[in-house]
Amino acid sequence: MKSILAPVLLGLMASAGCTPSAEQPKAAASETTAARHPVSGLAIIPVTLTIDGKTHEIAAEYAGSPQERARGLMFRTELGADEGMIFDFTTTDSQPSRQGFWMKNTVIPLDIIFVKVDGTIDSIGANAEPYSLESVRSTGPVMYVLELAGGRAAELGLEPGDSVSFTAPAG
């Protein structure tokens, strides 16, 4: 994501008459507006998966509102290997709870990864069937759900007990 975002930001800065400065603090550079997904319009944030002590980063669309979570990845026809969507229930729920996801209007198979409040993976619904109305449920109470392309969790070796971390976008 960073390799795509940097040229876009530099192009925008140049068209606005701004030039990056070597004296600019690194913190100021990271305060730029989050990139938005061209289909959903959701902010794209880095999500770090820690698997057996090794990290893997994906670019995830951030779904924090009930409306964003309800739409999810419905009607999408593709999802890259290092792309996904993170559903954040802390924005509306104060306590973790069991979550269930269905695949209504979802065209592609997905891995549905249920994440506890501390960031550890509770359970994984692997290769959820497109269009299925059957609920794929977490084993225990969770606060986050990460969706990846079907089969990707297995490719990465992602299992319950591994961890997922991210920082929600401001606003």
Structure, described:
The structure is a single chain. Helix content is 18%, strand content 30%. It has helices spanning 2-15, 26-30, 66-71, 152-156, and strands spanning 44-51, 54-63, 83-88, 100-101, 110-115, 121-128, 136-137, 144-149, 163-166. The strands form 2 sheets. It has a 7-stranded mixed beta sheet with strand order 6-5-8-3-2-1-9. A hairpin with a 2-residue loop joins β1 and β2. Mean pLDDT is 85; it is low at 1-31.
**DSSP E strands, number:** 9
Instruction: Supply the CATH superfamily name of the largest domain.
Output: Protein of unknown function DUF192
Q: Outline the biggest β-sheet.
A: 7 strands, mixed
Calculate the terminal CA-CA distance, rounded to whole Å.
21 Å
The unreliable regions are 1-31
Give a brief rundown of this model.
This protein is of the alpha+beta class.
Offer a few descriptive terms.
2 domains; Jelly Rolls; 171 residues; alpha+beta; disordered N terminus
Fold topology:
Blueprint: H1 2-15, H2 26-30, E1 44-51, E2 54-63, H3 66-71, E3 83-88, E4 100-101, E5 110-115, E6 121-128, E7 136-137, E8 144-149, H4 152-156, E9 163-166
Parallel strand pairs: 2-3
Antiparallel strand pairs: 1-2, 1-9, 3-8, 4-7, 5-6, 5-8
